[in-house]
Amino acid sequence: MSNNADEIPAVCNNCLGQNPYVEMTRERNGAECKLCTRPFTVFRWSVKKGERSKKTLCCLTCARAKNCCQSCMLDLTLGIDLRTRDQLLKLTDQSPALELTPQNQMSKIYAASQLEKKYKAAGEEAIETVEEKRADARKLIDSLSKAVHNKKRKQESEQDEEQVSKEELIKLCKHLPFNGSLETPKSSKIKSFFLFGFGEKLAEYQVRDYFEDIVGEKKVDAVTLNHRGKFGFVEFSSRQAAEKAAECLKDMLPHPKLVVVAGEPLRLCWAGKTTTPSFSTTEVAQVRTIVNRQMIKYATKEQKKSSENQVQSPSTKRSKTESTASSKYTSLRTDLEV
C-alpha cells in the first residue's frame, strides 16, 4: 500500500451513491493530502449525471489511520467529523493512530511515512486493530450517553430534595392552587386552568390539542409550561370555553383532576388568579418539590379510597348484582314492547 498506489479509494456508501456501477477517473499525484500534505492519487466520480463530481481529499494511508472516508472525511463508524471523534477518544486516553498535531510540513510527512511502513509490515493485523478501535469507539459513545443521563438524573434528584420551610410553603401556595378543583369559581374573570405534575417530554402544542379536542373548537389562547417547576397554565379565549372543558373533565373528587396528556400524567384545576405569577430560580425549585409532594399525596388518597370501595360485604355485592340484572331486564323488556 502506498499513498500513491493504483488502488481503489476508501469511500463511504453515502459518497458512492446507490448506483453499483460507478465510473471513476484517476489522477496520480493529482493533489496534496489534507492531513499529511503528501501528493496522492486523486479519484473523481459523479453520483448522478449533471451533478457536481466528487473527489478524494486525503490519501489512503491517512484515511486508514483515521478510519474515515477519503471524500467526506467523516468517521466510517460514527459518521461524525474527525475533530469531534478525536476529542471523544482522548477522554478515554485512546489517542488516534495518526496525530498530525505538528505544524511543520516535514514532521507530518515523516509521521505519515512511518505509519505507511507500519501498515505495510503488519498486513492483515492492522485491519484487526481498526476493528478494535471501532468497538472502543462504540463503547465510548455508550459510556458517555450513560454518564450524561446519570448526571441529569442526579441533578433532578437534587432539585427534588430542595428543602422548603413552612413560611415558604405558605407563600408559594398562595399563588398556586394545589388544593383546587374543577368546581366553577365565583369570579367570572377566571378563564384558565392550572396544571402540575407533568414531565419534560410534554410539549405546549400537545396540551393545546388536548383541550381543543375536548372543547371541540380552537378556544385556547395560550399555554405556558414550566418544565423545571413541573407546573403551567392554560388560558381559554372565553369563560364559556373554560366551563365547557371543566364540565367534560369534572368528577366528584374535591381535589385536582388526574388526566393523561400525550402519555404524561398531570393534574389540573381552575387557576386561582387571573394573572400568571412569576418565580425566581430558587422558588421554581421549591415549587417542583411541592408538586412532587402533592402528586404523591393525591395518588395515596385515591388509592386508599379505591381500596375502601372494593371492600364490601357479600350481601351488598349480591344486592348490587341483582339490581343491575333487574335494570338490564327492564330495559330489554321496554325494547321488546316497542
UniProtKB/TrEMBL annotation:
Keywords of the record: Coiled coil, RNA-binding
Indicate what this protein is called per its UniProt record.
Answer: Pre-mRNA-splicing factor SLT11
Give the residue range of the signal peptide: none
Task: Report domain RRM positions.
Answer: 191-273
Residue ranges the record marks as coiled coil: 112-147
What this chain does, per the entry, is described as: Involved in pre-mRNA splicing. Facilitates the cooperative formation of U2/U6 helix II in association with stem II in the spliceosome. Binds to RNA.
> What species is given as this protein's source?
Pichia angusta
Which stretches does UniProt call biased (Polar residues)? 308-338
Q: Provide the residue span(s) of the region labelled Disordered.
A: 300-338
